[in-house]
Amino acid sequence: MIKILCVGEALIDMICTDKNEPLSQGTHYVRRAGGAPTNVAAAIAALGGKTDLTAKVGIDPFGDHLVAVMNEFGVGTKWIFRDNAFTTFAFVSLMDTGDRDFYFNRGADGNLQSSELDQIPIDDYGIIHFGSATAFLPGPLQQAYLLLLQKAIAKNIFVSFDPNYRHLLFPDGNQSFIEQSWHFLSNADFFKLSDEEALLLTGKQNLQDAITDLLVKTKGVFTITLGKEGALLGFQGTQLVVPGITAVSVDSTGAGDAFAGAILYQLSKRSIDTIRELSKSEWVAVVSNANKAGARTCEWLGAMEAFKNLSNSIFD
CATH number, domain at 185? Predict the structure, then answer.
C-alpha cells in the first residue's frame, strides 16, 4: 500500500451548538480537531490507509489534543511540529440552510517552515496531498508549501490538491489565491474543487464553461463536488457526473475532506507504477465510493466524530 503525506493546517474547530445562531449570537461551543488536510489524513486512516500529517500546532493543550486525536486514528504524527504561537482556531456556526458561519483566529499553522519540511524523507511517500485552506496566506507556510510541491514534482510523486477556498480568509485577495491555486492545478495529478471554487478559479459565469476551461488547461484528473447531486469527473478531456448518495444530513463539515480522503485511500491500494494509469471506468468507481464516504460523514456532528464511523466497509 502506498503511503500518503498530507500537508497543511491542523487547527481546533469551535462549533457553536446553539441552533441556527450566527457566531455573533452563539453562546455554547464544542471543541473538535480540524483543518482540511488533518481531516483528510484522519479519513484515510479510518478507511485503512497509511498516512502521515505534517503541520504545525502550538505548545499548548490544544496542540496536545490535535496530536492525540491523530494518534487515535492511526495517523503518523512525527512530522507535526510545535510552536510557541497558539494553536489555530476556527469558530463555526451551523445554520438550518446547511451553510456555515466561519471565523479564523490564526496561530501556529502559518509558521510551518521549509527547513522543517526538509527533514521529511519524501521518498517514503507515493502521494502527497496539498489541502490547506491557509497555505496561500502570507507567512512561512506559503513558501514551505510551494517548495514541497516542487520537490514532489522532481521526485515524480503523485500530487493531490484541494484549494479549500474560504472567503473570510481572502476577502480582498482573491487574485492572489487564484494565481497560487493555478500553479497547483497545473501540476496536480488529481485535484478536487467545489462548484464555487471552479467558477472562482476559472473566472467563468457558469459551471459548464468552467469545466471546459479546466479540461483544456490542466493535465490531471479532477472532480467537482455537487452536493447531493454527486460529483463531476473530469478525465482526459471528457466529463460525466457520478451520482450522489442519499443521506440525512446533520452536519456537512468534513464531507469534502472525507470525499478526498476516500479517493486517496483507494488510489493508495494500487502500485505507484499503475496509479496514473487508471481507466475512466475505474475512476468512476473510485468517485462513486468517495461519494459514499462524503454522504456518511454528513450523518454526524463534526468531522472527526463522523470519521470514527467511517470504514472501507461502506464501499461494499
Answer: 3.40.1190.20
